[in-house]
Amino acid sequence: MSSQEPLVRVHELDVHYGEQHAVHSLSFEIAPGEVLALLGPNGAGKSSTVRCMLGLQPASGGELFLGPHEIRQNPKAAKRLCAYVPEHGSLYELLTPRETLQLRGRLHGLEEGSIERRSEHLLELFGLGERIDEAVIGFSKGMRQKLVWACALLSQPKILILDEPLSGLDAETTLVLKELLKELRAKGCAILYCSHLLDVVESVADRILILREGRCVAEGPLDQLLSAEREGEDRIGLGELFRSRTESADPVELARRLLDLPGE
Questions:
Q1: pLDDT in tens, 142-183
Q2: I want to staple 14 with a disulfide (CB 3.0 to 4.6 A). Which of 30, 60, 198, 250 is the partner?
Q3: Strand order in the sheet with 82-85
Q4: What confidence tens digit (pLDDT) does each residue in 13-58 have?
């Protein structure tokens, strides 16, 4: 992990929807070459935090810097440093992958030659090279998600925001993307990783931040959090830590109760 100035700085972030307080005084930083996993149950404030980082949701209070740019004061410059891979990416279905990446590259101000070279490289990497000129409307969910990834990587972002980024992908592509995250870290990319796949989080994250009802209830390197939580137990995992901090139900007990249906 880098000792340079953080690329992401969130300070005392507050998000309100009317009288509903979605995020309470949330603060965190992400350094170059660091992966921070943002975890929490549904409604914990993860999506609100991400939307603020992308400039899609105005914060009710606090500050949010991407690089040197505060997102509300200089949104255009801040967004140029950032790329986003959502769970369900939005694509123009009548465009081809080539046209999709051309559009994305032009929006980022890339040169035409650079767009073409990077597009061909990325589409080959994701196994879409032979379908570069086919309309997206005929693509499977997994193929579309690969194209969303290609769009995100085209501009070589300094900050990457991932929200369930492996959704719909096959096992081979998932393994490739895990290795890709390592390469991005080595190149100094700051990564925010939101996911419910705790095994993936354990394998890629440098630090964990757990939200509950809009508040940070745990933050730090995974091994330190587990050591602090252990309290005499031989070993606990991220799943046990997550449940203890979010007061989630025991999945084994819940599964048994779901199958214990009343009689006829």
A1: 999 999 999 999 999 999 999 989 888 888 888 888 889 999
A2: 60
A3: 82-85, 159-163, 190-194, 35-39, 207-212, 215-220
A4: 999 999 899 999 999 999 999 999 999 888 899 999 999 999 999 9
Torsions phi, psi of 89, nearest 5? -70, 145
Structure letter (DSSP) for residue 117: H
State the pTM of this model. Answer: 0.85
- Do 229 and 240 meet the contact criterion of CB atoms below 8 Å apart? yes
Question: Is 60:139 a contact under the CB 8 Å cutoff?
Answer: no
Instruction: Pinpoint the alpha helices (H) of the chain.
Output: 46-53, 75-80, 97-107, 112-125, 141-154, 171-186, 198-204, 222-230, 238-246, 251-259
Domains identified in the chain and CATH numbers: 8-81+158-259 (3.40.50.300), 91-156 (no CATH)
- Sequence-separated (6 or more) residues with CB below 8 Å from residue 111: none
Side-chain half-sphere of 86: how many Cα atoms within 13 Å? 9
What span, in angstroms and rounded, lies between the C-alpha atoms of 216 and 138?
Answer: 42
| Residue 99 in this model has a pLDDT that exceeds 60 | yes
- In whole angstroms, give the CA distance from residue 101 to residue 33: 25
* Nearby residues of 170 by Cβ (< 8 Å), 6 or more positions away: 142
Burial of 190 (0-12, 13-18, 19+ CB in 10 A): buried
- Single-letter residue type at 28: F
